[in-house]
Amino acid sequence: MKLKAMHFPVIMLTALSMLVEAVVSDEPQQVLPGCNYTCGDIQIPYPFGIGNSTTLDHTTCYMDSKFEFELTCVNSTLIRGENIQVLNINPQGQMEMKFFVSHLCTDSSSNNTEKANKPFLGDPSFTISSTENKFITVGHDSYGYLNSYFNGATYSTGCLTRCYDCDPKMVLIGNNTGKCTGLGCCQVDIPPLMKNITLKTFRFPTSTLSQDQEDCSYSFIAKQGSYNFSVDHIHNLPNQSFPLVVNWAITSESCLIAKTTDSYACRENSECVDNDPDYEGYRCKCLEGFEGNPYLPGGCTDIDECAKNLHGCKNSANCINTAGNYTCFCPVGQTGDGTKEGGCKLPDRKTYIYVIIGTILFLVIVGIISFFVYQKRKYTKLKSKFFRKNGGSILEQKLLQRKDSSIIANVFKESELRKATKNYDENLVIGRGSFGKVFKGELEDNRIVAIKKSKTIDESQIEQFINEVDVVSQINHRNVVKLLGCCLETEVPLLVYEFVSNGTLSDFIHTNLENNPTWKIRLKIATEVAGALSYLHSAASIPIIHRDIKSANILLDEDNTAKVADFGASKLVPLDQSEIATMVKGTIGYLDPEYMLTSQLTEKSDVYSFGVVLVELLTGERPFSFGRPEERRNLATYFLSCFKKDNVFEIIEDGMLNEENKQEIKEVTDLAAKCLRLRGKERPSMKEVAMELETMILNVEGNQHYEDID
Ligand SMILES: *[C@@H]1O[C@H](CO)[C@@H](O)[C@H](O)[C@H]1NC(C)=O
Ligand SMILES: *[C@@H]1O[C@H](CO)[C@@H](O)[C@H](O)[C@H]1NC(C)=O
Ligand SMILES: *[C@@H]1O[C@H](CO)[C@@H](O)[C@H](O)[C@H]1NC(C)=O
Ligand SMILES: *[C@@H]1O[C@H](CO)[C@@H](O)[C@H](O)[C@H]1NC(C)=O
Ligand SMILES: *[C@@H]1O[C@H](CO)[C@@H](O)[C@H](O)[C@H]1NC(C)=O
Ligand SMILES: *[C@@H]1O[C@H](CO)[C@@H](O)[C@H](O)[C@H]1NC(C)=O
Ligand SMILES: *[C@@H]1O[C@H](CO)[C@@H](O)[C@H](O)[C@H]1NC(C)=O
Ligand SMILES: *[C@@H]1O[C@H](CO)[C@@H](O)[C@H](O)[C@H]1NC(C)=O
Ligand SMILES: *[C@@H]1O[C@H](CO)[C@@H](O)[C@H](O)[C@H]1NC(C)=O
Fold first, then answer.
1. Atom of ligand 5 nearest to the CA of 152
2. Residues lining ligand 5, judged by CB closer than 6 Å?
3. Overall fold of domain 392-498
4. What's the predicted TM-score (pTM) here?
C-alpha cells in the first residue's frame, strides 16, 4: 500500500508530462532531451547534434561513436567541420551542404601564373549522391577532375571543354543559355560510392587564349538543377559554392557486421537497412507502423493510425490501434470487416427472420415448460387434495398413535406405485372384478407386490375405509394376504398387498385339470382358510367379517398355502354389536340366503360361504352354473339335497375318493352341510370349523405312516 502511495504522484507526473508533451508537440522527438533541434531554420535530427552543447546528463547531443555527426551553430548558421555550411538534413539519410568551387584563373599581374584550389570533403560516412548531383566544369580549354580516395585506391572522373582556334564568343553557337552542352560547360554523372573527394580544375597549356586576357576555369559538384550555365560564367562565375547532396550512414559497416557490435545504432522497433547501392554503411529505419527517430534511446514509437486517421477503416470509431498496425471492426450486431471497402452492414432480412424465428421458438419452449410446470403443480395440488379427501391425515394420525411399530401400514407415494406398475400397464393386470383391477408391480426395493386399484369410493365412507385399511393392515396371519400399505394421493385409494404367486383357489380347482385331485392338499387348504376366518372373526383386535369368501378370493402361494384376500367388502364389527345392517353384498352361489333375506350381516355369513368353498373343494364344481340342469344349478342346494339322500359320495370329484380318505371326506361333507344350514345360528362358528378340520389334518398326518409303508 505504501509503495503504491509513493508511486502515485510519480505516475501522475508522468501521465501529466506525457499529456503536455502530446499537446505541445504532435511530432515525435528527434533529438536527445535538452538538445536544440534547430539552428536557424535548419532542423538537426539525431544522430546529428551541435557539438558544444550537451544534454541534461552531460552527454553529447550527437551520436558519439564517430564524430561525423558533430555540427556547430554559428550565428544561426549550421556549420560542418571548419567551414562547410549545412543547408538541410534529411533524417532518412541525406544531407545538403554548400561545397566549394575549384577555380583556376590567369592573373596578368602575377605573370599569368595559375593556381587552382582543391576543395576536399574527407568524411568517410558521407558519400556523394550519384543520383542527385552532377560534376560540372565551366571554362575555355578546360577540364576538371573529381578524385575519390577510397579503400586505399584513387578513382578519378571528369570532363573537358575545348575549342581549337576558336573565337571564345563562338561557344554561343546557337542560343544555349542555361544549358550545359559541352561548349564552355561540360557535366558528367557522378559514380556511386564516391567518398573522401577532392576537385581540381586544369587548363590545356596550348590554350589559344591570349595571355593577357583574364580568364578563369571552374569545376564543382552541384545538385541537379541548382546551376544554370551562362556564357558570362566562362570568365566569371559569381558563385563560390554550390549545394551538394551527400548520403549519410552510420559507419561504413554492413548491417550483418554492425549488429554484432556494441555500437549498433538501431533501437527499438527499427530495422537495419544497407541495401542502397548509393552509400556505404548502414542506416536505421522505423518498422512499418512505427514512427520517430530509430537512433534515439527508446527507438520508434507506435503510430496511432486510428487517432491520426491513417487507417483503412470505414470510420475512426471502427478502428482499434495495435502495435505497429490497426484493425477494423464492426459494432456488435453488424456484419462486415469495418474497412472502407468492406464496411459494416446491418444484419440482412434473412438474419432478422432467423432471429425472429429463434425468439418465437424460445417463447414457445418457455411456454411449454411453464405449462408443464403449472400442470405438475396442479397435479401435486390435486394429489394433496385427494390425500386429504381420502383421509390421509386421519390415517397418518392413526399411524402415529400406533405403538407397535413392527406392524406398519405404509403410505406409498403415487409416483412410486405408478412406477411399480409401469403406469398401470394393462399387461400387468392379474385380477379384475367389480372392485376394480389388481396389478402386479415391483417396488424400488425389488419387492413384488399386488396393487389394487379400486373404483371410486363413496366420500361418506372415507373414515370407514381408513378404519379398514388401518385394521386390515394389522392382521398378521399367515393365511391372510398381508396389506403392505396404501396410497391416498389418487382419486381412488390404492392398496398394496403382498404378491401371492400361484393364483386363486378357483383356478386351482377348476382349471388345473391335468392332475388327479389330491384330497390332502384340499383338506390342508380348507383348514388354512378356516383358521384364517376363525382368526378374523375372533382373534383380531376388532372382529372382521370378510363378507365375500369364495374360491376366487383365496390365493395360493408356491407351497399351496392359502391366503385369504380381498377385504374390499369386509366389515368391521364393533365389539358391542354382533350383527349390522348393510346393503347385501357378496357373490352369487356363495351368498348366505339368510343374510339375503334379512340384510342382517353376521359372521355366520362367512361360515355359509366357507361351506360353499368346502363343497367346491369336494366336488370340483363351480358354485353356480347355468350350464347345469336346473336342480343342480346352485351347488350348495344340490349338495344339500344329495346329503339328505345320503348319496354325497356320488358328487365327490372323480378320482379323489378312495378307501383311505373315505372317512375324512364323509366328515368334511358333514361339516359342509352344517355350515350350509339355513339358519345362521345353527351353523358352527369358524372357530369350531377350524378346530374340527385341524383335528382331521392331525389324523391324516398320523395315517401318513401307513401310506409311506405302502
Ligand atoms: C560553441 O562554439 C562556437 C564556436 O565554435 C562558439 O562561438 C560558441 O560560443 C559556443 N557555444 C557554447 C555554448 O559553448
Ligand atoms: C538553443 O538555441 C537557443 C537559441 O536558438 C539558445 O539560446 C540556447 O542556448 C541553445 N541551447 C543549446 C543547448 O545549445
Ligand atoms: C554574426 O552576425 C552578425 C550580424 O548579423 C555579425 O556582426 C557578426 O560578426 C557575426 N558573427 C560571426 C561569428 O560570424
Ligand atoms: C614574368 O615572367 C618573366 C619571364 O618569364 C619574368 O622575367 C618576370 O619577372 C615575371 N614577372 C613577374 C611579376 O613575376
Ligand atoms: C582520404 O584522403 C586522404 C588524402 O587526401 C587520405 O589521407 C585519407 O586516408 C583518406 N581517407 C579515407 C577514409 O580513405
Ligand atoms: C537567346 O535566346 C533568348 C530567347 O530564347 C533571347 O532572349 C536571348 O536574347 C538570346 N541570346 C542571344 C545571345 O542571342
Ligand atoms: C535555371 O533555369 C530554370 C529555367 O530554365 C529555372 O527554373 C531555374 O530556377 C534556374 N536555376 C537557377 C539556379 O537559376
Ligand atoms: C550564384 O550567384 C548568383 C549571383 O550572385 C545567384 O543569383 C545564384 O543564386 C547563385 N547560385 C547559387 C546556386 O548559389
Ligand atoms: C496492417 O493491417 C492491415 C489491415 O488490417 C493489413 O492489410 C496490413 O497488411 C497490416 N500491416 C502489417 C505490417 O501487418
1. 14
2. 122, 124, 149-150, 196
3. Phosphorylase Kinase; domain 1 (3.30.200)
4. 0.52
